[in-house]
Amino acid sequence: MTPGFVDGDAPILLIADHASNHVPADIDLDVDPALLNQHMAIDIGVEATGRLLCAALGMAGIFGPVSRLVIDLNREEGAAGLIPHESDGFAISGNTLLTAEGRHARIERFWRPYHAFIADRIAAHRPKLIVSLHSFTPRLATRPEEQRPWQVGVLYNQDDRAALPGIAALRAAGIVTGDNEPYSGKVLNATMNAHAEGNGIPYLGLEVRQDLIGDDAGVALWAQRLAPVIGAVAAAL
Predict the structure, then answer these.
(1) Is Lipid metabolism a UniProt keyword of this protein (predicted)?
(2) Is the pLDDT score of 108 beyond 70?
(3) Which end of the chain is more exposed for a tag (fewer CB within 10 A), N or C?
(4) What pLDDT, in 10s, does the model give residues 56-73?
(5) Which residues pair with 62 in a beta bridge?
(6) What's the chain look like in SS3?
(7) Would you state the pLDDT for residue 148?
(8) Opening angle at CA 105, ends 135 and 50, nearest 5
(9) Please, are residues 190 and 79 in contact by the beta-carbon 8 Å criterion?
(10) 70 close to 107: Cβ distance less than 8 angstroms
């Protein structure tokens, strides 16, 4: 399945792994359809925000075409959670029925083409900066006592060349910013590990709190707030 794509001439590439809640008609996850509009199925607000950012900065964007309940594109191929059996306390019963052949087929159908598309784009048009765009829920259903006060989190693993100035720029703009929060890029960073760190390309891993970009007004506001930060980080590299 081909990812969503926006072309651009700027030397920046945006990647949004969890931009879609699409479940192909021939895949039965056996879940309440209402879950497909929640954070366990999609990064709420990310596709619309990402497309506005691409337009504002003239950068290319790659958007994951399938729900992470079908396959999580931000996981290594062999990761246990690649095809999830549960998410935030909800069972994904249809996935538990997959045979080894079924798992392999799903990887071949979705995961490999997505990462091949990214690799091909980088090989043909090497960016000076990669932006990874995700959103996070203010709290998890399984851990309601844990509040997530950050408006934006910056995630990174070993390469902090863009992350540290990005954190500084976000905080200077008055944005409540988490440094490797609400979770650490040293633990979960698969796409950036492969395509940014693996190619020696600086990257800015942005996690926006989903309630801030849950409607058109929020999307427009946060695209407007994030665009100059991304632009400044890219210009300083």
Answers:
(1) no
(2) yes
(3) C
(4) 999 999 999 999 999 999
(5) 5, 15
(6) CCCEEECCCCCEEEEECCCCCCCCCCCCCCCCHHHHHCCCCCCCCHHHHHHHHHHHHCCEEEECCCCCCCCCCCCCCCCCCCCCCEECCEECHHHHCCCHHHHHHHHHHHHHHHHHHHHHHHHHCCCCEEEEEEEECCCECCECCCCCCCCEEEECCCCCCCHHHHHHHHHHCCCCEEECCCCCCCCCCHHHHHHCHHHCCCEEEEEEEHHHHCCHHHHHHHHHHHHHHHHHHHHHC
(7) 80
(8) 20
(9) yes
(10) no
Is residue 37 over pLDDT 80?
yes
Q: Which residues of 130-141 are buried (b: 16+ CB within 10 A; e: fewer)?
A: bbbbbbbbeebe
The domain tally of the chain equals 1
Tokens of 117: 């598309």
Residues 211, 140: Cα–Cα separation, whole Å: 13
The CATH number given to whatever domain includes residue 41 is 3.40.630.40
What residues does 14 pair with on adjacent strands?
Answer: 61, 131
pTM, rounded to two decimals: 0.96
Distance CA 69, CA 29 (A): 8
Identify the domain containing residue 141 by its residue range: 4-236
Structure tokens at 203: 């990257």
Strand pairing partners for 133? 206
- Which residue is associated with the tokens 């192909």? 24
Nearest to 74 by CA among 160, 178, 161, 183: 183
Cα-only R_g, the chain: 17
For 86-90, 105-109, 123-127, which range has the lowest pLDDT when averaged over its residues?
A: 86-90
